[in-house]
Specification:
With about 325 residues, the chain is an alpha+beta fold. Strand 10 and strand 11 form a beta hairpin. The relative contact order is 0.07.
């Protein structure tokens, strides 16, 4: 109703070049009324902006000279071109509809939704049907190597809404955002959904491997076991949703040294020394586990550094620094 009223007023102002004192209302019944704010004068010289005292007092018995009063002005509709009004009304209704859609999808941001693949454009992006709006899964937001077919239903993470342009409201979706892992575990693990287990940090290389740090807010709960599930059912459901991406569940610890040691799982470091000066963790690992600690192309240590927020230097036992000798790390990984 407000969109129609504003459209009629815009059409009137466009056709007359004036109308700052005009107000139009559309009631719930569909009746349209117009009002003009006019100054009360003894003798009317400008009918568009002035009204006589006698006429004003018919509407408001307390009206006095010099006051502004609203007077019903149905004659203004004679000056509104029908075609112009129709075009503006349709435009305002479309704008109101887009605004409604934009607001209604706000609560789905930072969450998972299920969309249907409509098509794939030339740039490699997938366009998704998200019920009332379209979603855009750009190539950079797709899991490497993942291919979808038209009509396929896919679960995506919404991280931004855009409005305007020829497509109206559009949601930007992702399959690579690290929060998609958090939301998937919330779906699969009741203890996470209920707040008994908390995901403290996530480090991810989409399509390949992720590390998820968890801890229990309630005594007696095994946070890792809760995430894995009986015979791995819970974590396997997440892995399958992410096209086979490997996921390591790590026990978070308030002690940064213990957290770094846990993050290098499945390796058991001999010791972890923290240097606050350059925010580096010096990790000593057994010789036979050095390659395992570093991982394929450095992936294990790299993810551990991102997960913990510490730069990680990995050394062999014989390379352990002494007061008289500073050795070189076998490998160093930045956050």
């Amino acid at each position: 109703m407000a969109a129609v009223a504003n459209a009629l007023l815009a059409a009137y102002r466009k056709s007359t070049g004036s109308g700052e004192n005009i107000r139009i209302e559309v009631e719930g019944s569909g009746d349209v009324k117009s009002w003009a704010s006019k100054r009360v004068v003894a003798q009317v010289q400008d009918p568009m902006h002035e009204v006589s005292l006698a006429e004003a007092q018919q509407r408001d018995p307390h009206a006095a000279l010099g006051q502004q009063v609203d007077v019903e002005a149905p004659e203004i509709f004679n000056k509104i071109p029908a075609q112009a009004a129709k075009q503006i009304i349709l435009q305002r209704i479309r704008e109101a509809e887009q605004e409604f859609l934009f607001e209604s999808y706000q609560d789905q941001l930072d969450d998972l939704v299920i969309g249907t693949v409509l098509r794939r454009d030339e740039g490699g992006a997938y366009v998704l049907d998200l019920n009332k709006i379209e979603g855009l899964l750009e190539a950079k937001e797709q899991i490497p190597g993942e291919r979808m077919r038209v009509g396929q239903r896919v679960r995506v993470y919404l991280y931004e809404l855009k409005r305007g342009g020829g497509r109206g409201v559009q949601a930007l979706a992702s399959r690579t955002h690290r929060n998609i892992i958090k939301r998937l575990f919330e779906l699969e693990v009741p203890e996470i959904y209920d707040g008994q287990v908390e995901i403290k940090a996530i480090a991810r290389e989409p399509g390949s491997r992720s590390k998820v740090a968890v801890w229990a807010r309630q005594e007696g709960i095994d946070p890792i076991g809760a995430c894995v599930g009986v015979r791995g059912t819970r974590i396997n459901n997440v892995i399958n949703e992410l096209n086979g991406e490997k996921i390591d569940i790590i026990l978070w610890d308030p002690d940064p040294a213990k957290f770094v040691a846990n993050a290098l799982s499945p390796v058991k470091p001999i010791s972890v020394e923290l240097r606050e000066s350059d925010h580096t963790a010096l990790v000593i690992v057994p010789e036979r586990q050095l390659s395992l600690a570093i991982g394929n192309r450095g992936q294990n240590a790299r993810l551990a550094a991102r997960l913990t927020g510490w730069r990680i230097d990995i050394v062999r036992p014989e390379e352990q620094p002494t007061p008289s000798n500073e050795s070189t790390a076998a490998a160093s990984f930045e956050v």
